[in-house]
Amino acid sequence: MDKHKVIFEHPLNEKMRTWLRIEFLIKQLEYNKTVNASNALLFFHSLSELLEIVERNDVRGDLNKDIEEQKQKLSTWLNVPGVDTHLLNELLDKLNAILAQLSTQPKMGQSLKEDRFVSSVRKRLTIPGGCCSFDLPSFHLWLQQPQDYRDTQITAWRNSFLTLYQAISIYMQLTRQTGVFKSLACSNNFYQNTNEVTSLLRIRVRLSQGVYPQVSGNATRYAIRFVNFESSIMSKIDASCVEFELASC
C-alpha cells in the first residue's frame, strides 16, 4: 500500500462502533505491553477503558451472533465451483473453535475486576494526577519491581482478553475483506451515497491532500464531508475537488 495514503474507518452501527473501540484498545495494550514509568499509565488507561466497555455491553453475546453470521455466509461458498474448499474449511474450523472458546470462557474481565491492585489503579485514573506516588504508593512500588515481575503480571492481565482479541481480529479481518476500494472524487469536499446494508466504511485519502473525512448516516445512507486539516497545506492543492478511495464493508 502507498505509504503516503491514510485509511479512515467509520462504523455505521453501534456494534461495529464497539468492535472498533475494543480493537483499538487491545492494540494499545500490545503497544505498551513492556511497562515502565514512562508508559505505565497509558497501559492502565487502555486496560481500564477495555474493562469498562466489556462491563457495559453484552460483548460475548453480540460477538457470538456476528461470528455465527460470518460462518453462515462462508458456508454458502462450499458448493461454489472453483472455491478453495480446503482453505474455506480451515477458516470455518477456526470460527467454530472461537465460538466454542467464547461459550466456555468465564465472564470477560472478571479476574481483573477482582484484582485488588488493578482496581486500586482504576479508581485513581479518573482523578487528574491521581496516580502520584503519594496518592497511590502501591503503584509507585510496583513500578520499582524487576521488569520480569511486571512482565509476568502484564501477560496474565492481557491473557484475560486473549479469546476476545482472537474473536475480534478474525471478525474484523473478514469484515474488511468484504469491501473493495473504489476510486472516487467529489466536489465541494462533499460526497453522499446510498447502498445495501453496510456496517463499516473505509476511506483512503492521499496524505498530501491534507483532509480528513467526517461521516454521518446509517447502514444504508451516508454522507462524507472532507475537512481541511491545515489551511497552509490545503492552499497548495485544489480544495474544491477531493480524490479518495472508498470501501463499503
Explain the layout of strands and helices:
Blueprint: E1 5-11, H1 14-31, H2 40-56, H3 59-75, H4 85-104, H5 110-113, H6 116-125, H7 137-143, H8 147-159, H9 162-177, E2 182-187, E3 190-194, E4 200-206, E5 211-217, E6 221-228, H10 231-234, E7 241-248
Antiparallel strand pairs: 1-4, 2-7, 3-6, 4-7, 5-6
What does this entry look like structurally?
With 249 residues, this protein is of the alpha+beta class. The protein has 2 domains: 14-175, YacF-like (Orthogonal Bundle); 179-248, YacF-like domains (YacF-like, Sandwich). It contains 10 helices and 7 strands. The chain has helices spanning 14-31, 40-56, 59-75, 85-104, 110-113, 116-125, 137-143, 147-159, 162-177, 231-234; strands at 5-11, 182-187, 190-194, 200-206, 211-217, 221-228, 241-248. The chain has a 4-stranded antiparallel β-sheet with strand order 1-4-7-2. A hairpin with a 3-residue loop joins strand 5 (211-217) and strand 6 (221-228). Helix 2 (40-56) crosses helix 6 and helix 3 crosses helix 9 (162-177). Residues 232-236 have low confidence and may be disordered.
Concise overview:
Its main location: cytoplasm. The chain is an alpha+beta fold and 249 residues long. It has helices at 14-31, 40-56, 59-75, 85-104, 110-113, 116-125, 137-143, 147-159, 162-177, 231-234; strands at 5-11, 182-187, 190-194, 200-206, 211-217, 221-228, 241-248.
